[in-house]
Design brief:
Number of strands: 8
Structural class: alpha/beta
Helix content: 25-40%
CATH topology: Arginase, Chain A
Strand order of the largest sheet: 2-1-3-8-7-4-5-6
Oligomer: single chain
Strand content: 5-15%
CATH architecture: 3-Layer(aba) Sandwich
Number of domains: 1
Distance between the termini: 27 Å
Largest sheet: 8 strands, parallel
Number of helices: 12
Shape: globular
Length: 387
């Protein structure tokens, strides 16, 4: 007798959120806007996606400080805590604190503990079987390194949570799938020599975007060879190129790995309007990626990550929450509120982007490079997974 697929509406889902976190201000000129989480929450309420009996709001609590050293160096954590209090030293700057990307902000240490606590607790609920899916829109700080901050990331909540998970249940197979426009270099650092987590990142090529890494030849070392997979995309890559990468490399690897759980960074900075990146995706391929994830492995922790077009990111994450909960968004206020705030599509009560495809030489180059990358992964990585 075959087992039926688990149903989120029978088991439950968690949305990690607090008004306190969404009000934290990185400054008027900083691209990271914590209010994205509040806008997402508002849209989920508007579209009837937050008022179902199987759903719970999880207000994050600070992670235990002892857990930070699952990934971070104690000296770095001390520097971050001191900087957050206003105690600045040469060591502070050496640790990547006080840069344009990672300014020294009063309370940033405490805020980072909340972000990491939300991710860690949500993953714990998934592992316990309390819920089937969870979403932390203010999680996903994949650039944080063991000894320094970078890329808007002070504490790497992902690496900490994954380290904790594999220590607690080492027999669990976990996939980390990163579809943010930026390469997940901090998580790669954590597991590059480790086969316990399959780390996959689909991102804009490091030739044109920070953190200037994540090339297809980066496939792990030692015991970790074949368990790090990078699929860089050329500037101008659209939904067709992105879907090709998923179909030809990403989804076959996940299926072969047969994970118990997927931790997914679902950054919205791959979208066509993002001011910091050069990809041309719409939320149509984004939704498809999430739907396929739920088919390959229904137990999913989604994390927000990047997304610097504030309102389009909120729309994207609203759709992510709807897909994870197997719901169709319905605008309960169509014709009464909206307008252009969340994009022109809102005029007709829709969260969905219009289709867009890149044309000409840009598209040809993007697809040709994607084909070369897929061929490389099939040759160099697939054999490690019996493919």
């Amino acid at each position: 007798m075959s087992l039926s697929k688990p149903d989120v509406q029978n088991i439950g889902s968690l949305f990690v959120y607090s008004d306190e976190m969404s009000r934290f201000d990185f400054g008027p000129d900083h691209p990271f806007k914590a209010e994205r989480a509040h806008k997402t929450y508002e849209l989920c309420m508007r579209y009837g996606l937050m008022d179902h009996p199987w759903m719970k709001i999880l207000k994050p609590e600070p992670i235990e400080t002892a857990l930070l050293t699952l990934f971070h160096e104690p000296e770095y954590i001390y520097s971050l805590e001191e900087a957050s209090k206003g105690n600045i030293s040469i060591e502070t700057l050496k640790r990547g604190l006080g840069t344009e990307d990672n300014p020294i902000l009063p309370g940033i240490y405490e805020w980072s503990l909340l972000a990491a606590g939300g991710t860690y607790e949500a993953l714990g609920h998934l592992m316990n079987g309390d819920v089937l899916v969870a979403f932390n829109p203010l999680g996903g700080f994949h650039h944080g390194m063991p000894g320094h901050a970078e890329g808007f990331c002070y504490v790497n909540d992902i690496s900490i949570a994954l380290m904790g998970a594999i220590e607690r249940l080492p027999e669990q197979r976990i996939v980390y799938l990163d579809i943010d426009a930026h390469h997940g270099n901090g998580v790669q650092e954590a597991f590059y020599k480790d086969s316990r987590v399959l780390v996959i990142s689909v991102h804009e090529t490091g030739k044109t975007l920070y953190p200037w890494s994540g090339y297809k030849t980066e496939i792990g070392e030692g015991e970790g060879i074949g368990f790090t997979v990078n699929f860089p995309l050329e500037p101008g890559s659209d939904d067709e190129v992105f879907n090709f990468a998923l179909d030809e490399a990403v989804f076959p690897l996940i299926k072969a790995f047969s994970p118990h759980m997927i931790v997914a960074l679902v950054g919205a900075d791959t979208l066509i309007s993002d001011p910091l990146t050069h990809l041309k995706l719409t939320n149509n391929s984004y939704q498809r990626a999430l739907r396929e994830m739920t088919t390959l492995c229904p137990r999913i922790l989604a994390l927000g990550g990047g997304g610097y077009d504030l309102y389009r990111t909120a729309r994207c994450w609203t759709l992510a929450w709807s897909v994870l909960n197997n719901l169709e968004p319905t605008d309960e206020f169509a014709g009464l509120v909206g307008g252009m705030m969340f994009g022109p599509e809102q005029e007709v009560g829709s969260l969905y982007d219009y289709p867009y495809l890149t044309q000409g030489e840009t598209k040809d180059k993007a697809m040709a490079e994607a084909k070369r990358t897929a061929a490389y992964i099939r040759k160099e990585v697939f054999p490690f997974h019996g493919l």
